Amino acid sequence: MQWIAGLASKNKYKMDDFYKKILDNNKKWVESTLSRDPNYFKNLAQGQTPPLLWIGCSDSRVPANEIIGAKSGEVFVHRNIANMVVHSDMNMLSVLDYAVNVLKVKHVIVCGHYGCGGILAAMKNESIGIIDNWIRHIKDIYRLHKKGLDSIENETERFNKFVEFNVIEQVFDLAKTSIVQSAWRNGQELSLHGWVYGLNSGFVTDLNVNFSSDEDLDEVYQLKFSE
Ligand code: CO
Fold first, then answer.
1. Which residues are catalytic?
2. What predicted TM-score, i.e. pTM, was given to this entire model?
């Protein structure tokens, strides 16, 4: 019964102040939410029909719901380092498939942010561990836009432009997925958008890279589906 002893020792875990505070915050949040609407959780438990899938950065300063004033139930969220749409990433594909084919979201927003550590790492050469392999995808974007980026002398401006190019490419990568193209082919209403969030201002900028069909994709990416 050693494992039970192991569990018991875990129960002796000494909570630090932050850990205590977040558990306490949860209790207070439930109380105040119920005081405003006694059926709040009962209603949410019925199911979800969010109109939006958000693909954002894991950065702790870019909380999806908060930025856009979305309530619980309004936004389906996927976050990873530097808001990437890597078409062999089973996690992203599963979220996208569920969002598009089951939840039938109407919008997908890829939201990057200025000051993104993942983008900065991709501009540099230091190895920082296994994450190098993830950052590689971002370096590929740099290579794709090398001419434009290298021509910007100011480093901050180049960094900001790289953040924007990355978002734009991720929206294109979304449009190239079989999931999104198949939805369009079936006449499903689905729009893709690219945003950048300003950590300094709180405002998002719409990069005006909007897709609601595959006609703006290079022909080689346009999939044909058999009936
Ligand atoms: Co980031």
1. 57, 59, 61, 113, 116
2. 0.93
Q: Which long-range contacts (CB under 8 A, 24 or more apart) does 135-139 make?
A: 135/81, 135/82, 137/84, 137/86, 138/82, 138/84, 138/166
Cα-to-centroid distance, 150 and ligand 1 (Å): 21
pLDDT band at 12 (very low <50, low <70, confident <90, very high): confident
Residue with tokens 């990437």: 84
Which residue, among 120, 133, 132, has the nearest Cα to 89 in the 3D structure? 133
Compute, in angstroms, the gap from residue 76 CA to the centroid of ligand 1: 19
The pLDDT tens digits for 190-218 are: 999 999 999 999 999 999 999 999 999 99
Distance 170 CA to ligand 1 centre (A): 14
